[in-house]
Amino acid sequence: MPKKILLVEDEKHIARFVELELKHEGYDVFVAFDGREGLELASSENFDVLLLDVMLPGINGIEICRRIRTQSKVPIILLTARDAVMDRVAGLDAGADDYIVKPFAIEELLARIRTILRRITPDEKIGESLHFRDIEIDVAAYEVIVQKNKLDLTKTEYDLLKLLIEHKNKVCTRELILTSVWGYDTDIETNVVDVYIRHLRNKLPGDMNAYIETVRGVGYVMRE
């Protein structure tokens, strides 16, 4: 069954071009041209990936992302003409898994979609679990349990935590995290890693450094 993608883009010539390319790659594509229609579709249908333009009439892409995150962990990629760091950080804070800055090469967008789809259908051993102190990751169930409570993580947050635990007691550089979690050579700034580390720290119990230690100028580590 082909993967379903929702594209929310108000520039119709861009939407049509991206739609045709995605269909050519075998995806089942739905298109909305304004934020309200896009939010309604995203809330009522099950999609494998959402592609959201940031600057939309009605409701902007960041707000759609924020609302969707209250009800779904569907992977979200933001399409934005804004390349200021704070705009991108705002999108990631709203729960986006990735972003791509316009104008972009369609090959790059397709590569990012393939990468994000691989991340949500991981080739893992049935029953495999990872442990760190009182954290348990049930890989087959894609769940994280901390102090007997299920942790509500986005897929990117999950992948980041899993990477850190797999490399426990070893410092993960920001560059390693970007390559491993996002899965490709990327122009995304390393401060995106800091945003997601903050997300994880806010969701883990205890003080901010209880589980994840910052190694200044290098990266992060989880030490037993």
Percent in helix: 40-55%
CATH hierarchy class name of the largest domain: Alpha Beta
CATH superfamily of the largest domain: Response regulator
Poorly predicted sequence stretches spanning 5 or more consecutive residues = 122-126
Give a quick account of the main beta sheet: strands, pairing sense, barrel closure.
5 strands, parallel
How many structural domains can be distinguished in the coordinates?
A: 2
Structural class: alpha/beta
Report the radius of gyration as a whole number of Å: 18 Å
Q: With helices defined by DSSP (H or I, 4 residues minimum), what is the helix count?
A: 8
Distance between the termini: 43 Å
Outline of the structure:
The chain is α/β, with parallel strands linked by helices and 224 residues long. Helices cover 40% and strands 21% of the residues. About 2% of the residues have low confidence.
Write out key terms for the chains shown.
single chain; 224 residues; alpha/beta; Rossmann fold; Arc Repressor Mutant, subunit A; 5-stranded parallel beta sheet; 4-stranded antiparallel beta sheet; 8 helices; 12 strands
Task: Describe the fold and architecture.
The chain has 224 residues and is α/β, with parallel strands linked by helices. The chain folds into 2 domains: 4-120, 3-Layer(aba) Sandwich (Rossmann fold), CATH 3.40.50; 129-222, Orthogonal Bundle (Arc Repressor Mutant, subunit A). It has 8 helices and 12 strands. The protein has helices at 12-24, 35-44, 61-69, 85-93, 106-120, 155-166, 174-182, 191-203, and strands at residues 4-8, 28-32, 49-53, 76-80, 98-101, 129-132, 135-138, 143-146, 149-150, 172-173, 213-215, 219-221. The strands form 3 sheets. A 5-stranded parallel sheet has the order 2-1-3-4-5, with helices on both faces. A 4-stranded antiparallel sheet has the order 6-7-8-9, with helices on one face. Strand 7 (135-138) and strand 8 (143-146) form a beta hairpin. The radius of gyration is 18 Å and the shape is globular. Mean pLDDT is 86; it is low at 122-126.
